[in-house]
Hints:
Number of helices: 3
Radius of gyration: 15 Å
Shape: globular
Distance between the termini: 14 Å
Amino acid sequence: MEKKLTIENKLEQLTLLSGYVEELCEELNLGPELVFNFNLVLEEAMTNVVMYAYPEGETHTIELTATLQGKELVFVLKDTGTPFDPTQVPDVDTTLSAEEREIGGLGIFLIKQIMDRVEYQYIDNHNVLTMAKNI
């Protein structure tokens, strides 16, 4: 099983993501908690690409592929933006209050907490972010 979504790097395109996740989870008979978690993780990852990977005003495509590999659901997010490895971002210190924490990094922290595996590669001028969850 494989399901693809291709969007442009525009914030309004992110609205297509929730339908993609809902259809995918319905096909796999996954419950509302996983629907919520996948929406959160994928929206965070794709928003980061839309907001930060490309110079303002340029239009590019972002590709998301979900593949079921045994009992593991694997999401692969590909873009041609500025190379950035989110797995190297230090975890946010959640013991600090919101006022004491530095801005940024919380979304990446959530991705790492929710998913069982998060890996990054830069292959053929593409950022390739792999996020997997045992279902």
